[in-house]
Structures are given as C-alpha cells and as structure tokens.
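Hi R.,

Quick one: here's the YCII-related domain-containing protein sequence you asked about.
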Amino acid sequence: MVDDSTEDTSKRVDDLSDDLGFDVLMLEQHVRFRLDLTRMQRGEPAKLGYVLIDRQDHPNAAIVFSTPDEAREAIESHPLVESLAEEDCLDAYVPTGVDPAALIGREIFLP
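And here's the predicted structure, written out as tokens:
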C-alpha cells in the first residue's frame, strides 16, 4: 500500500525543486550537515551518522546519513559505501563520536 501523503509530499518537493531550479532535498541535506558541524564546534555531540572511509590512493571520505543507526546499516549495504570502499579502502567504520577534526581533509558525501 502506498501512502498518499508521502506521494503528495514527494511531488510537492519535486515541483518546488523544478520551480526554484535546484534540488531542494540536497539543499536540506547540506544545511543539516552544516548545522551538525556547528553543533560539534560548540562541543555538542553530532546528531547525524557518519561512515568514515580511510583510503590509500584517494582522499579519505565521510558519508553523512540522517542518523547514526542509518550509518551503521549503510556500512553493510549502501551502494555508495560499497563503491567507495572497494576502490582502495584501508578501513571503513562508523565512529561512536565525531568531532570536526575527524572530517578535515575528507571528501564529504551526502547521499
């Protein structure tokens, strides 16, 4: 069964994106990431979930998810995580705590 309210919301977001000329959901992800960075800089814990990938021949990466639980699930089955990890991965993990220093020099992905 398809939830009509979800379908309606999705259509409205798509329409808004078309009207504005940019991806509204991507903007929302970017703003949520920036807010999480601000929280971390104030010494508060991160609210988003992060998969950190240390790589040998490419810049290290951080993939940002809506929650830590989502990040823990993604490390096992998300196609972006799998793709980045198979290139030249030395380690892929979900840290228990993240601070801004852990993100310096990493490519940031907002799936």
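The two ends are 26 Å apart (CA to CA).

Cheers,
M.
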